[in-house]
Every structure is written in C-alpha cells, then in structure tokens.
Write a structure and sequence with these properties.
The structure holds two protein chains of two kinds. Chain A is mainly α. Chain A contains eleven helices and two strands; from the N terminus they run H-H-H-H-E-E-H-H-H-H-H-H-H. Chain A has a single domain, classed as ABC transporter involved in vitamin B12 uptake, BtuC (Orthogonal Bundle), CATH 1.10.3470. In chain A, helix 1 crosses helix 6, helix 1 packs antiparallel against helix 10 and helix 9 packs parallel to helix 11. By secondary structure, chain B is of the alpha/beta class. The chains are: A mainly alpha, B alpha/beta.
Chain lengths: 288, 570
C-alpha cells in the first residue's frame, strides 16, 4: 500500500464532505449574514438519525431520506425559530444564539443516542477500487462523486440562475431586495433548507466509512468554516477550498500522525486569518 | 462607580464568608464556597472580554486550564513550585496575546471560531500526550492538599476580592465608556480616535490573565485537571454561567458561579443532563434575559437606592484646557483631495476626484445615492485607503494614516448618528474628549464636554441617556461631538435628514459656528435649499466622477447636474 496515494484518496473523501459543509455555510451566511455555528450539527443530526433507523432494522430507502429530511428540518428550525424572529439583532448576538443552539443540540443528541460512536451499513458495497497503491471503497467513490455533483450544482445554481441571484441579492441588501419583491424570509428558509440537505447528504455518505457521535457537530462546523474562510466566503471558491482543506489535512496526518489533526487544522485557520488580515479595511474595523 | 463597586465586592465576599462559616444554606459548605469563589475569579476574565466588550471568545476554558497544566508539568519535571506557579500564567498570557493578535483584526466570527479551535487543540493535546498530561485520568496536584479547607477558603475569598476590586477599578470612567463604545460600534469608536484593535488586544490579554490566575488556583485547590477542563464544553459552561449571572456587571461572575454550582449541588449532580441543561439555559438567557440575574436586579435596585448619579458635579475651580491651535487660513487649503481613485473588485467607486477646502469654508458634496460621497468621506476620515491618490490635511499627507490617528484633526458625523444608546449624552461627548484631552482629569474632561454641549445649545440634554432623546437631537449631538477639540475639518453626512424646521435652524447655527471657529466643513446633503443657503462652493459627483464644480447655487442650476441628480432621484 502506498501511503501517499492512500492519504490523497482519503483527503479527497473528506474534502468532499468539507466542500458540502462549506457551500451550505456560505449559502446560509450570504442570505442571513450569520455564520451559523450550529451548521455542523446538521451533519450529526443526519448521521445519528440514519444510524438509529438502520439499527431499528429500516432499509436504506427509509433511513437515507429520513436522515436528509431530519437535517433539513433541523436547519429550517434554527432559521425559523431562532434567527427569523431576531432579524434586527446584531450579528454577534445571533452568532451566540447559534452557538447556544449547537450545544443544546449536542446535549439532546447525547441524551437520546448515548455517547458511543454509531454507524450504519454502506450503500455502495462491493470490491474496492485499487489505484496506484491506494484503496478506494465504492462508498468513497460515491461520496466524492455525489459530493462534488451536489456542491457544484448548488454553486452553479447560486451563480447562474435567477433564483440564485435573488438569494444573493438578499445577502447584499435585504431591505432593497424586499423592495424589489424578493421574499426575504422565504429566501433565507430556502438557503437554510439547502444547507441542511447538503449537511444530511454529507452525513449519509461519510458516516458508513467512519462513524458519528453526539459531539461530531462542532468539529464539522470548524472545518466547514475554515474551508469557507479559505474561500473568502465566496460561493464560487467554496468547493475548491473544501477539497484543499481535506487534502492538506490528510497529507499532514499521513506524515505527522493522527494526533496532530486538530492542531494542524487550527494552524490552517491561523494561516488564513493572517492572510485575510492583509485584505481587511484599513483602520482595522472589519465587520462581522 | 469605583467605590460603589468596591463596596459591592466587599459586601459579597463578606456575605460569602459568613455563609461558608455558618453553613446556614444547605449545600454551601466551605469547600463549595471555595470552589465557586475561584470559578468566579476565572469568570472575571471572560466578563471583561465577552461581557463588557462583547468579543466572541468561545474557548476561554483553555486559558483557565492551560496554566494548571503547564505548572503541573513543570512541577513533574522538577521545577520548584514557586517558579512553576509564576511561570505558567505568564506563558498563558503571552499565548493569549498571540491568539488575540492573530484573530482580532478580522470580523468577530474569526475570533469565535479561532478560540473554539484553540480550545479543541488544547483539549486534544492534553489527551494525546498522557505521559506528560496524565491523559484522560488527569494531572494530579499534590501540593494543594497540604493546605486545609479553611486556609483555602481564605485564599479563595481574598483572591476573589482582589480580582473583583481590581476589575471594578480598571473598568470605570473613561475605560468603561471606551469599551462600551467599541462593543456598540467599532467604526464609530475608531472615528472618535480610539485604537480599537489595540484596546481589544489589551482587553483579551488582561482578561486572560484573570482566567489564568483563577484557573491556577482553582485546579490546585481541586487537585486534579482532566482534558475536558480545557475543552469547548467547559467554555460553553463558562459563557452560560456568566450570562446567567449578568454579563458586564461586576457581580455577574460571582452570582453566576455561585448560583450554578449551588443548583448543581442541591439538585444532585446529574452529568447525563449537564449538557442539555447548560445548552437550554444558555439559549433561553441569550434570547430572553441577555442581562442575566444582575439585569433583573438592577431595576429594583435603582428604585430602592436612586438611579445613580446622572447629574454632573461642576463645582470647584477647574482649569480650562488649552484650545487647539489653529493653522491660519493663508497657509494653504485645510483639506486637499488629490486625484483619488477607489475601486471595489470590478466596480469603480471613485475616478480622479480632486478638490480643496479652505479653513472656515463650508464645502458641499452633491450627487445622487451611490455617487461615491460616503466612500469619499471614508477615505478622508481614514476608514478606507484609496486605491490611488492622496489626501492632504493642513498640508500634511495623511493618506496612509490610520483612522484613529486622524481623529484629533477630523470630526465626523454619520447619516444615522452612531452614538452609544446606553450611555448619557454627556458620556457620549466625553468619548471624544477622553481621546483628545487624555492629560486632563475626569472632572476636567466633564467640564470640557459640558462646555461643548452648551456652545451648541444642547446643555440641557447632558444627563439624559441617548436612548431617551429624539432622532433630531441625536443628529445634532453627533455633530456637537464631532466638533469637540476644534478639529481642522468636520465631515457631515446628510445632517439635515429627518430634522424638524426648528432643528434645521439649530443645525444652520451650529454649522455657522463651526465655520466661524475656523473649521473647514464638508457637507453631504440632499436638501438643496439647505445646502445652497449654507455652503459657498461644492462639487457634484455622479457614479464616482466629478460632473460639475463651483458655486453651489450655480452648479445646481446646470442642466447636466439636474439630469444626473433628479433623474436618479425620481
């Protein structure tokens, strides 16, 4: 087995997940101006729903849609119940609200699902592909293919369709968008719904290869945010940034050991922060 | 505020001592009082960073746990206890400063995610190297056990008293005003002359020092530290506890810490439900009672003991501050904007804009919305650096000078007044006085601020909170504040919008006074009648380009100007 090839393969797989998370995070950020710190919980909610239903003997055509549906409902609830009634609040307070929601979700998941990591059977079984000394399970290939397809189509939707333009108009100036006849609430709900679908999808595809537990959410938020920040919160670059983060994380883990994964991701964040600081408004008062 | 806060801190500590000794309240033993007091001490840091300034520090538990880990590991490596106890907080404070330097320049969410990530890293490292950190079973501190609970109680309460007292002493007067201004509006604060980044880095560093010292004492008392103590869940618990007590209040950390600890003791510690309870309480408080228990107590407290001293003591001789020296009008233009270009991405916001304004002159910038007027104000006041071109102020090139360093020479009012609503009118004016007359004492600065209000006929508003006065009054106040210290240049962004006719009169008087004092006034205004009456010269911008210049009355009559202007308005 060639460790380099293998780490590139696993990096591409996690890159697909980070791309999905980053696109969802950027989408929600652009319509609501809030970086949703409960975003990664949609991954945990979806993954644990699928695992619970699978354990209860349900077939994949039940637990896959149910999991994605649960993730969508989760982020819709965050938008509808927590953010929408507080549109006039300062961004900082709303970020705090989403953090509180993330922890409450984590607590509820712990109560319902316990603390043990759970998983469910792969959707795509069969002999793994072998290429250049690396192994790629069929589920992994599906993860990469479907992940790229979903993330890219959401990006294209945002960049090139009239509805996508309207979503971005909401982000730039909600009041003006409202005057132009865009329903801001519906646009935000749509954005959070799509973000939830992407989060659920990433859980359904990734969890069978690894596992998921009640505390998976914040780590996913962290990585999704890093990818999004790497892309400068631009939808067009989020997919690339996700894969970039996944690959570099896997390569460093390969050479430096798995224990260094969190510190390395954090170093990446520091690097991005230093790099972004150069672009910040002179006078140094960036807006959240 | 200082003495009152000290009285509060003393009272609380005395009450806690009584409770610990007598044991009247079930669950409050000397042992729990000691732990809660030390936990409260660690929360003072978070209160400063998050409660007062509103920085999103979501990994503060790491700064509480790290000094204990470092001191413990140094101890195991054979370093003498005293040296380890001294070294550990210093290392942690330096680390906190590093984290602050990296993330604070960026929008708040970077600090949020950066500190969350920092917490994850510290927790992960503590787990990853069990040979040094004791891994999941924790690092044990033997030394703490040798001191009795009574002595620990004395240490804890003394430390809490010193912590709360020094906090109250630091966060008062000008510092309090400045920090609340930063919390409320960083841009407005920097235009007032506050170095926002430096202040935030300072607050994060000082706050982390409280966290570090408190954490060191706490874990030496508890006797063991585990990786979770550094992690994100503990950080959440800290924020939840502080919010429950009352973020931004001196007593907030203390009330929160004792309340939470006591509730867990009497309800029987339920680890399984801990996360749910914290999450739910955190969410409910953030949404429904952002001021916490202290916020709920403040109303009744003020009814009982009076609403504090809103009035101002102006008795006694106070030396007048020297008036800022004015450069004479003959020395050349006061403001000179030279061939300024500004592009945002692909959009050209300003193209080859040049104009001069003399001292004592009222100069008008006219143009439809989106013409680039506010961008030009941002460039002149230093909020933004132009893509190319130069800005000269009193003959000096200030193009590269950061916004807070221009504040003494430039006063700026905003389209929507950017005042701090929770502070009084006087305190809002003092925000600028504090920056320009730092060498004066607090009472002297009060006199300067009051005189400023009197000059512009706003003296009667001084004791009112900004939240209580009308929009028109706020706009006039914003301008009066911008004129503190007789700056060479005053920038007024749509000052007439939303004013009643009486207030418009008032505004005209203010602008004439500014001009008579030798200030160059640049005014952006759509009310053509008003502008024509008050300004002599001006330029007209359309889509970032100059389309006319000259006497205001004449240029407003030009056909091209009317087309650009009224075409865009209609």
């Amino acid at each position: 087995m060639n460790p380099l090839t293998q780490s590139i393969i696993s990096g591409t797989m996690s890159g697909a997940v980070y791309a999905l998370l980053a696109v969802g995070l950027v989408l929600a950020f652009h319509t609501s101006r809030v970086v949703n710190l409960a975003h990664g919980e949609s991954f945990a909610v979806g993954g644990l729903t699928a695992a619970a239903l699978s354990e209860a003997g349900q077939p994949f055509y039940v637990y896959v849609p149910a999991a994605i549906g649960a993730s969508i409902l989760f982020l819709l609830a965050i938008e509808r119940l927590l953010l929408r009634p507080r549109r006039a609040w300062p961004t900082g307070s709303l970020i705090l609200v989403t953090l509180a929601a993330a922890f409450l979700t984590r607590g509820v998941l712990q109560l319902i699902m316990g603390v043990d990591p759970l998983s469910f059977p792969r959707l795509f079984t069969g002999a793994p592909f072998r290429l250049a000394g690396g192994v790629l399970p069929q589920q992994g290939l599906a993860l990469i293919a479907i992940g790229v397809l979903a993330a890219v189509s959401v990006t294209l939707f945002l960049l090139f369709t009239p509805l996508g333009h309207r979503l971005r108009a909401v982000a730039e100036n909600p009041d003006a968008a409202e005057l132009l006849g865009v329903n801001v609430d519906r646009a935000r709900a749509l954005a959070f719904g799509i973000a939830g679908a992407l989060g659920g999808l990433s859980a359904v595809l990734l969890v069978p290869l690894v596992s998921v537990d009640y505390q998976a959410g914040l780590g996913m938020t962290l990585r999704g945010f890093i990818a999004a920040a790497l892309a400068g919160m631009a939808p067009s670059l989020a997919v690339l940034a996700g894969f970039g983060l996944g690959l570099s994380e896997a390569l460093v883990t390969n050479y430096g050991g798995a224990l260094l994964q969190d510190p390395i991701v954090f170093l990446a964040l520091i690097g991005i922060a230093v790099w972004q600081s150069r672009n910040i408004a002179f006078g140094g008062t960036g807006r959240a | 505020m200082s003495t009152r806060s000290l009285v509060i801190a003393t009272g609380i500590c005395a009450a806690l001592t009584g409770l610990a000794v007598t044991g009247w309240i079930p669950g409050l033993t000397p042992g729990t009082v000691c732990a809660s007091a030390l936990r409260a001490l660690t929360l003072i840091g978070l209160n400063l960073i998050f409660g007062v300034v509103g920085m999103l520090a979501f990994g503060q538990a790491a700064f509480v746990a790290l000094p204990a880990y470092i001191a413990g590991m140094l101890g195991h490596a054979g370093v003498p206890l005293a040296a380890a106890l001294l070294l550990a907080p210093i290392v942690v404070v330096l680390l906190a400063r590093g984290v602050a330097e990296i993330f604070i320049r960026l929008p708040g969410v970077y600090l949020a995610v950066g500190t969350l990530g920092f917490g994850m890293v510290v927790e992960g490292l503590a787990r990853a190297f069990p040979a040094w950190t004791g891994g999941a079973s924790g690092l044990v501190f033997e030394q703490g056990r040798s001191i009795g609970t009574g002595a620990w109680c004395a240490i804890a309460l003394a430390a809490l008293f010193l912590g709360a007292g020094s906090y109250a002493w630091y966060v008062r007067g000008a510092v309090w005003r400045r920090l609340r201004a930063i919390r409320h509006d960083e841009l407005a604060a920097s235009v007032l002359g506050i170095d926002v980044q430096r202040e935030k880095i300072k607050v994060f560093t000082i706050g982390s020092a409280y966290s570090a010292v408190g954490g060191l004492l706490l874990f030496y008392y508890v006797g063991v530290i585990i990786p979770e103590d550094a992690g994100v869940v503990r950080s959440l618990e800290q924020i939840g506890t502080l919010l429950l007590g009352g973020a931004g209040f001196v007593a907030g950390p203390i009330i929160g810490s004792f309340l939470v600890d006591w509730l867990f003791v009497i309800s029987g510690y339920a680890a399984r439900y801990e996360l749910v309870i914290y999450g739910a309480v955190f969410l409910l408080i953030v949404i429904y009672a952002p001021q916490g228990v202290c916020g709920l107590l403040v109303g009744p407290w003020q009814r009982l003991f009076g609403a504090g001293k809103a009035g101002v003591d102006t008795t006694g001789p106070v030396s007048r501050p020297p008036a800022a020296a004015k450069v004479s009008g003959d020395a050349g233009p006061c403001l000179s904007v030279h061939n300024v270009f500004q592009s945002f991405g692909g959009v050209q916001a300003l193209t080859a804009v040049s104009f001069d304004v003399r001292s004592g002159e009222v100069f008008s910038l006219v143009g439809p919305n989106g013409a680039g007027k506010t961008t030009l104000f941002n460039i002149v006041s230093g909020v933004q650096r132009p893509t190319s071109g130069r800005v000269l102020l009193d003959g000096r090139d200030v193009t590269a000078l950061p916004v807070h360093l221009r504040a003494a020479a430039i006063g700026r009012s905003f389209q929507t007044p950017r005042l701090v609503p929770e502070l009084t009118v006087l305190s809002n004016v003092m925000l600028r006085v504090d920056q320009l007359f730092a060498e004066l004492t607090e009472p002297e600065r009060q006199v300067v601020a009051l005189e400023q209000l009197d000059i512009f006929d706003l003296g009667s508003l001084a004791p009112h909170r900004v939240a209580e006065i009308s929009l028109g009054q706020r706009k006039l106040l914003d301008i009066a504040r911008a004129a503190v210290g007789n700056p060479s240049l005053v920038l007024l962004d749509e000052p007439a919008v939303g004013l009643t006719s009486a207030e418009l009169e008032h505004l005209s008087r203010m602008i004439r006074k500014l001009s008579a004092r030798g200030c160059a006034v640049v005014i952006v205004e759509h009310n053509i009648e008003f502008v024509s009456a008050i300004a002599e010269r001006g330029i007209v911008l359309d889509s970032g380009k100059e389309i006319a210049r000259g006497r205001v009355r004449e240029i407003m009559a030009q056909e091209s100007v009317r087309a650009a202007y009224f075409g865009a308005l209609s």
